[in-house]
Amino acid sequence: MITPLKLVDVNKQFKDGDRQIEILKNLNLTVEKGEFVAVIGPSGSGKSTVLSIAGALQSSDSGQVLINGRDISGYSDKEKSLVRLKSIGYIFQAANLVPFLNVRDQLKLVTELAGEWNDDAKKRADDLLESVGLTSKAKKAVQHLSGGEKQRVAIARAFMNNPELILADEPTAALDASRSREIVGLIAQEVHDKNKAAVMVTHDESVLDFCDKVYEMHDGGLRLRK
User: Fold this and answer.
1) Where do the domains of the chain lie, and which CATH numbers do they carry?
2) Looking at the predicted structure, is the pLDDT value of residue 95 above 80?
């Protein structure tokens, strides 16, 4: 079975004036199909850096980044963009929706970029909107949605390309407790029902019960919480 995400001895430094700050130190992480993993830790500990490297948004200084068994460490920017488009679904703290598109067109855009907007994709978009409870708002402008509704659109959009890997960066930060559990529950359902892999960076301890494993950032690496 191909592993959706594997980070092997990943290192990352940032420059702060004349100093080099080591954020990630020989970090290792494996996420299998059907596994929902959380990464927690204080601000500045490197959680979002882990997610950016795993999602081909940022390069590591050394180590391997394997997506579906392929080491993308040496990929060009164009090759990485194709990996993001085809294999990874992103859910961000801010929904990052396109302001001038309605709800359904947010999903349509994903498959149009991949050149795959066809009858199957149209049905998938409708099915996804139904699964997140937004069928009745498919034609609604996104600026008229609540925060929770916008995040549900973002989740449906992240699932639209049927990715093997789902990455969520503080997806509940702007939501109240009940909406937070609703949103993380939707991610967990997709992972477990459709055998996906997911990594969620979060400060929200109240949603960790949805996750199969919880890792804590520790000295630039990850430590499994028992």
Assistant:
1) 5-96+164-224 (3.40.50.300)
2) no
